[in-house]
């Protein structure tokens, strides 16, 4: 059984575990839990009433948060010619073709997000066993397979969050940092949840957002009012 530290006990004492917090109160509580020397990430977890085993209930996509995530993101791009030039001009950290593929095969993955033009997907597809488990495989659904590499690079640098429901029907996403202002975290959360609600599949039965939890990297979670989350349009 995992031992509960004094620090964690102290943080847990600040949370009313019998209560479902509204968004405003939840953010206030979570910000008050910051107790580590580094700037912790604010994380949102949503448990959805979907069955990811059915293709039409696989919730995935991307959203650009209005205030970003607070994290510097390194972007790599598979592109050649003019598209490679566009990617570099937009601020991509790494741009390449066969040379980039070779780096990845050798385990040299020093980037956080990967973009590819459609003509590069035959090359990228061969790297699926490496990129897939790391969540780095480009896909049209997240806008990471595109001819508009410039827009894709800029969106990711400006705070795009890619999301995908896991096998248990849960979506996890970073929505800011503990140092963010209250309104910045709230606006990021509203934008993220709004996008999740838009993707509700018609085949999903029962309550769509079953529960929501807000937390910091090193803090216990705060339960949110799921009905308020579902009402965000």
Protein model, in words:
The chain is of the alpha/beta class and 233 residues long. It is 32% helix and 21% strand. A four-stranded antiparallel β-sheet has the order 7-1-8-9. Strands 4-3-5 form a three-stranded parallel β-sheet, with helices on both faces. Helix 3 packs parallel to helix 7. The mean pLDDT is 94.
Question: Short description, anyone?
Answer:
Helices cover 32% and strands 21% of the residues. The chain has 233 residues and is an alpha/beta fold.
Tag the structure with descriptive keywords.
233 residues; alpha/beta; 4-stranded antiparallel sheet; 3-stranded parallel sheet; globular
What string, H for helix and E for strand, traces the elements in order? HHEEEHEHEHHHEEHEEH
Helix content: 25-40%
Total strands: the figure is 9
Number of helices: 9
Topology:
Layout: H1 6-12, H2 23-32, E1 41-48, E2 60-64, E3 75-78, H3 81-90, E4 94-96, H4 98-105, E5 113-116, H5 121-125, H6 128-131, H7 149-157, E6 160-164, E7 170-177, H8 182-198, E8 209-216, E9 222-224, H9 226-230
Parallel strand pairs: 3-4, 3-5
Antiparallel strand pairs: 1-7, 1-8, 2-6, 8-9
Helix pairs in contact: 3-7
């Amino acid at each position: 059984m995992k031992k509960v530290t004094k620090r964690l006990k102290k943080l847990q004492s600040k949370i009313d575990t019998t209560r479902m917090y509204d968004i405003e109160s939840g953010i206030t509580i979570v910000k008050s839990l910051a107790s580590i020397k580094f700037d912790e990430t604010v994380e949102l977890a949503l448990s959805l009433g979907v069955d990811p085993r059915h293709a039409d209930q696989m919730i995935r996509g991307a959203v650009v948060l209005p205030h970003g995530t607070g994290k510097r993101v390194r972007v790599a791009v598979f592109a050649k010619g003019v598209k490679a030039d566009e990617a570099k001009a937009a601020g991509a950290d790494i741009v390449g073709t066969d040379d980039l593929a070779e780096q990845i095969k050798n385990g040299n993955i020093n980037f956080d997000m990967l973009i590819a033009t459609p003509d590069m997907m035959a090359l990228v597809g061969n790297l699926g066993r490496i990129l897939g488990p790391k969540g780095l495989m480009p896909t049209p659904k997240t806008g990471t397979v595109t001819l508009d590499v410039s827009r894709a690079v800029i969106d990711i640098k400006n705070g795009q969050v890619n999301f995908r429901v896991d096998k248990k029907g849960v979506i996890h996403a970073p929505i800011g940092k503990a140092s963010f202002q209250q309104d910045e975290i709230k606006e990021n959360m509203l934008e993220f949840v709004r996008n999740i609600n838009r993707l509700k599949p018609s085949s999903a039965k029962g309550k769509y957002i079953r529960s929501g939890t807000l937390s910091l990297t090193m803090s216990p979670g705060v339960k949110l009012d799921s009905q308020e989350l579902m009402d965000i349009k």
